[in-house]
Amino acid sequence: MRALRAVAVAVLSAAALAGCGPAGAGSDGDAAPKGSTAPGTSAGAGAPADPGTGATTSPTAAPGTSPVTSPSAGTGGSTSPTAGRVPAPGETLVRVTRTGGFAGRTHTLVVKGDGSWTQLDGEARPKGTGKLSEAGLTGLRTALREADFARLPRIATGGPTIYDGYSYVFVHDGHEVSRDQGSLPASLTKVLDALPPFTGGQDAP
């Protein structure tokens, strides 16, 4: 009897030992091994690692969007909305008023976009008309463009005094420039040379 009882105790002990696993097993031993990741996720999710520094980076923009750019502010100032625009045939290309001379009279010359021109006296009454040739109109346009009215000072003095000389007021492309004869730069002298006459009413070449 003692022998049978001893055998039974040995069998029960062996069965109990066989039912126990390593430490941490069972219901508490199902935890993922150290260094593993949960199903459906990847290491470092949401940000790829920088291979040089090991730091993670984040996207700079959402997919399907483009970066927003702003206009450059270093343009050196605004430009005239009409700069370089060719006036329509009936629009004024340039208007020049001349005052002075021996008689001290005022005359104005208005040239339209199609080359037609009108002479006005001091009371703004028409005194003569005509039309520039194609070559003459092209020469006047070139002289006006090269004068760059947008950059010319509105009033300039300091030139030599010319007794009984003329004073001029130029209006072109929304800009008004006044000069005495002695203060005329070469660019405005070219404009005057390209204009039809201020008096006489005859056609200019």
Question: Quick one: overall form?
Answer: globular
Compressed to H and E, one letter per element, the order equals HEEEEHEEEH
Q: Roughly what fraction of the amino acids lie in strands?
A: 15-25%
- Low-pLDDT segments, ≥5 res: 20-83
Main β-sheet, in a few words? 7 strands, mixed
- Number of DSSP helical runs: 3
CA-based gyration radius = 47 Å
Mean pLDDT comes to 72
Broad structural category: alpha+beta
Counting DSSP E segments of at least 2 residues, the number of strands comes to: 7
Side-by-side strand order of the widest sheet: 4-3-2-1-6-7-5
Distance between the termini: 148 Å
Helix content: 10-25%
What can you see in these coordinates?
There is one protein chain. The protein is α+β, with helices and mostly antiparallel strands. It has three helices and seven strands; from the N terminus they run αββββαβββα. The chain has a seven-stranded mixed sheet, with no helix packed on it. A hairpin with a 5-residue loop joins strand 3 and strand 4 (126-131). The model is unreliable at 20-83 (pLDDT under 50).
Please name the defining characteristics of this protein.
alpha+beta; globular; seven-stranded mixed β-sheet; 205 residues; 20% helix
